[in-house]
Amino acid sequence: MATMSSSTRRAAADDAAQPLRYAFHYCNVRPGLPPAAGPQVFGERAAAINTLRDKWLNGTELTYYFYDRPSDGQTVTLSDGSSRFVPWAGPAEQKQAVRKAFDAWAKLGLGLRFREVASPEQAMVRIGFMAGDGSWSYVGRALLDVAAGERTMNIGWDVTRDLDTAIHEIGHALGFNHEHQNPFSGIVWDEEKVYAALAAPPNRWSRQKTHFNILRKLDESTVEGTSWDPDSVMHYPFGPGLIQQPEMYRVEPLQPAGGLSARDIAQVRKIYPAQPPVDEFSELVLAESHRLQIAAGQQIDLRIKPPRTRSYQIATFGEADTLLALFEDSAGDLKFRGGDDDSGEDRNAQLKLRLQRGRSYVLRVRMYYAAAAGETAVMWW
C-alpha cells in the first residue's frame, strides 16, 4: 500500500500538471496460489475455483508473530560487494500499529480470528520489519508454502502514521489481490511513464517488478464480479499522468479515500461471514453420507465424534471441487490435523487420519464448484 500524507495529497491536488513529481512507497506483493489449470477447468468452474483458491476456510484462526530476537534477520550483499546483517525486528510502536491493523479487520465481525503467538513455529503469518526491503505479503493460503523460519510479510517503512499500509498487507494475507490490477477496471496505463516513475526513488523497481505489481492484469477467473473499487484499501494511489483511461486521471491523481471501503467490507464479510459457536455444529454420523446442500463458494462445518480410537477415512463423493480440513477441538481451540484440496482435479478430496475416542473434531468442507446441485456428499467410515 502506498504512503501518502495529507500534505502530499494537498500538493497533488494543487499541482496536478506535473505527472512524475509524486513518488509513493508501493507494496511489492508476493504470489498467491496458481490458478487451477488443465483443459477440464474452464468457464464457470475455473471462476468458482480461482476466486476462492487463495482464501482461507472460514473459521480459521490466523496466528501471527513479530520477529524480535537479535538473531532474526539476514545477511545482504551490498553494491560494493561487502555484506552486512540486517535485522527483521521492529520497534514496539510499529508492532502496535500492525496490531491495530489486525483489529481493523477483526472489528468487522468476520468468521476469521487473529491471535498473536510467542514463537514463529506457532505462526502462520510471520512479520518482519526489515529496512530497505519494502512492504509486502504473500497472498492468502500461499503463505503456508513458505519455509518455516522465513517471513511471510514485511513492513518496510513507518506505519504508525500510515495504518493503511498494514491493513493492506493483512488484506493480502487474507487472500485479496491488488484492486488496481482488476481486469474490469478499465485502466489504460501510460506504460513507459509507469516504468520510469517506479524506477525512481523511493521504489527503484525493475521493469519486471513494476509489471507484476501494477501493469499486469489479473486473470478474469480470479476476480469476483465485474466492478472496480478505486477506494479499496487494496488499491494504490497514482499521481496524474500515469493513467490514460479513465480520462479524468490524466490530470487528476487517483487517491483512494483511505481505510477499508464499503466494498472491501462487503466482500470480506461475504467470504468470511460470522460463524455460530463451535458447539452448535451438526454432527456427521459415522458411515452415513451427508448430502452437501451448499452452493458454490459456501462452506459447511460438521462435528465428528469417534466411537473408538482407530484410523478413519473422510471423503467427498460426486463431481465437485472441494476443500476438506479436519481440526481437533481442544476446549474451543481448533488444532489442524489434515486437509485435502481436489479443486481442478478429476478426483475427490479425502483424508485418512487416526482419531481418538473421547475427543471431538470439526470437519470443514468448502464447495468450490459442483457439476450438479445436491449431488455431492461427504462421509466418514
Automatic annotation (TrEMBL):
Pfam family of the protein (one): Astacin
Organism: Pelomonas aquatica
Name under which the protein is recorded: Peptidase metallopeptidase domain-containing protein
Domain Peptidase metallopeptidase: 52-232
SUPFAM superfamilies registered for this protein in UniProt: Metalloproteases ('zincins'), catalytic domain
